[in-house]
Amino acid sequence: MIRVEGIHKHFGALHVLRGITFEVSKGEALVIIGPSGSGKSTLLRCINLLVEPDEGKVLIEGAQVNRPDIRPEWVRQQVGMVFQSFNLFTHLSVLENVMLGPVRVKGLQREAATAMAKELLARVGLAAKANAYPAELSGGQQQRVAIARALAVDPKAILFDEPTSALDPEYIREVLDVMAALARSGMTMIVVTHEMGFASSVSQRILFMDAGRIIEEGRPEQIFENPQQDRTRAFVSKILR
Amino acid sequence: MATVEAVAVRATRQAAVSQRALIRAAEMIGGGLVFLFLLQWFLGYSVTDADMWAVYQRSFVNGTIRTLTYVAIILPVSVILGFAIGWARVSRFRTLAWPATVYVEFFRGVPPLVVVIFASVLGPNLLPERFQSAELGLTLGATAIAFHSAAFQAEIFRAGFQSVSRGQLEAAQAIGMRPMQSMRHVILPQALRLSVPPLSNEFAVLIKDTSLMAIIAGKELFHLTLRVQDTIFREGGDLRWLFAQWTAVAILYFILTFTVSSVMKLVERRFHARGIEAISV
């Protein structure tokens, strides 16, 4: 469904991604872990072309999408994204946040978009907050709205960039629950997270990244309980405490 | 049920707002009357002196019309120009950014009076024959004021653009919006929210800066009042009239700037985002 091949990315003198290759199949929830600065966020941003890879291919359903004759906007409609810092549009109500994509990108009529947005908000448990503004919501609620907003343009897959890292502990659960339900419903997901419980229960496969490379790949129990590489072992021991 | 309640709440709130506006207007008119009373009784002149107005009326009316005309032309031109240059300054196309920076630094550093004189005196010589007309010098002078103000407005818009976090743009891109759509629906509304208050400040300055047109015989309020003053000095007259006339000028400029800043307050309210409240300190 999504495949990246030999992705390299430099920021000035910094070689952030050093040849990344992996594939996610349809309906799979892939988790990426790794120390900060290992290139996880950049990798996600390369997949929806928020960052343009210097080298390598991004393929969606077998077709290369990082090429000049394909608009990156089209790619981003296929692959949604949820950010660590939510990034809800502060000047719009919750409902309008979710509607903006369907109305402006998909060209949906306002009534249809409203109905759809309300349905998505109900799905993330926030039907009652439709008319609230982002700054009036808790972090957990904001992140659930962000998930609804990403779903609203009907993507084939969604990228999650540390979706719970900016949350107070009491709000992490509600976001993970929404994500788990999404995974169960068959959404293809690539999730950068350090939530081991989530990774173990929801994902089939974990990639461990360090210094711009994929160091190890395996089932959650293998990565957490029996890592093969020293770097994986060192990292896992730190996050499991 | 909820909607009925919402309508009721909104109606009550609107009634409260219009009531407050009425009280405010009454306060201003009352204050104005007290002010005129003070002028008359303590300073010994009145802005309602009939003899003074017999001399001054025509100049005042014509000057006011001219001043309004200048404002009506210069203000929109400067906003459009300032917005374009402010945008250019933050553009990802570097070739747009640096000329905009040069523009801002130039017009910010040169006295507007000098620019007005250069534009109106030298300007017409630089333009071909067919553009020449009696009013060309004035038009160029007014343009110079617009250019000057645009430099300051550009900085205001730039600050507005830069106050919008990178994440907002990324989020707009992530739902598949094109650059212009992100600009219009996400960046701009948030940038303008912060640009409006300082912009209203700059408008007040600009309105008063139209008086610079007096230096090139702009026939606006300031210029015509100066002419009446000269006449009174030359041919004799009640010197207290001068105070009354300049008071009238001050009041007129005040009304103008106050009107514009009131409109800007409404604009400000329109961009208000709930949950992002100003702190009180």
The outline of chain B comes out as flat
The Rg value of chain B, from CA coordinates, equals: 24 Å
Distance between the termini of chain B: 39 Å
Largest interface: A-B, 32 and 23 residues
Provide the CATH top-level class of chain A: Alpha Beta
User: What value does the average pLDDT of chain A take?
Assistant: 94
Quaternary organization: heterodimer
Strand order of the largest sheet of chain A: 6-7-8-3-9-10
Could you describe the 3D structure shown?
The complex is a heterodimer of chains A (241) and B (281). Chain A has 241 residues and is an alpha/beta fold. Chain A is built from nine helices and ten strands. Chain A has a single domain (2-240), classed as 3-Layer(aba) Sandwich (Rossmann fold). In chain A, strand 9 (205-210) and strand 10 form a beta hairpin. The model of chain A has no long low-confidence stretch (mean pLDDT 94). Chain B has 281 residues and is mostly helical. In chain B, 81% of the residues lie in helices and 0% in strands. Chain B has helices at residues 2-43, 50-89, 94-109, 112-126, 136-163, 166-174, 179-209, 221-235, 240-270. Chain A binds chain B through residues 48, 50, 71-74, 76-77, 80-81, 83, 85, 87-91, 93, 100-101, 104-105, 132-136, 146, 149-150, 152-153, and chain B through 165, 167-168, 170-178, 181, 185-186, 189-190, 193, 271, 273-276. Chain A: It is a peripheral membrane protein.
